[in-house]
Amino acid sequence: MRKAFVIVSTLLLVSFVLQFLFAAVGAFTKPAGDGAYALHSINGMAIIPVLTLLTILLAVLAKAPGRLVGLAVLPLGLVVVQALVAALANGSTDAAGASTPFGLTIAGLHALIGIVAVHVVVSVSQAARKLARPAPTGATHVTVREGEPA
Fold it and tell me: Following CA atoms 128, 134, 135, 141 in sequence, which dihedral angle do they give, to the nearest 10 degrees?
């Protein structure tokens, strides 16, 4: 299960990296039509949530520490926030349908939240790899509970 956790968390990271590429494709498509952000939308609303759910499931099945499971859940919440922020940005237009300064500011937050999500997924992927490494030969497993002296 731990190897599967590593593989899926790595695929999730790749999907997040592609999300930025797909956003750039949409931003630089000329003329910009309704389909300019199709790849960005499909990846963000379908692929990333599915891979995030698989990452969470595999973290639990791999018996990852609770903090790592919680960290694996975080991108799912960020994806939901991203969808809400994108809807708010798209809905913040003037009477003629043009972008407003408020809408553009909210759209900027969409990008910043994406950067935070990538950092979280990098941490999950690194922790999954660390968890999957075998213990060094001759290592002794020691459990230290919080609040107790080490």
Answer: 70
pLDDT tens for each residue of 100-127: 999 999 999 999 999 999 999 999 999 9
pTM comes to 0.84
b/e string for 92-123 if b means 16 or more Cβ within 10 A?
beeeeeeeeeebeebbeebeebbeebbebbee
pLDDT (tens digit, 9 = 90+) per residue, 10-31? Answer: 999 999 999 999 999 999 999 8
The DSSP line for 83-144 is HHHHHHHHH-B-TTS-B-HHHHHHHHHHHHHHHHHHHHHHHHHHHHHHHHSPPPTT------
Question: Is residue 44 over pLDDT 70?
Answer: yes
Are 22 and 39 spatial neighbours (Cβ–Cβ below 8 Å)? yes
C-alpha to C-alpha distance for 13 and 43, rounded to whole angstroms: 12
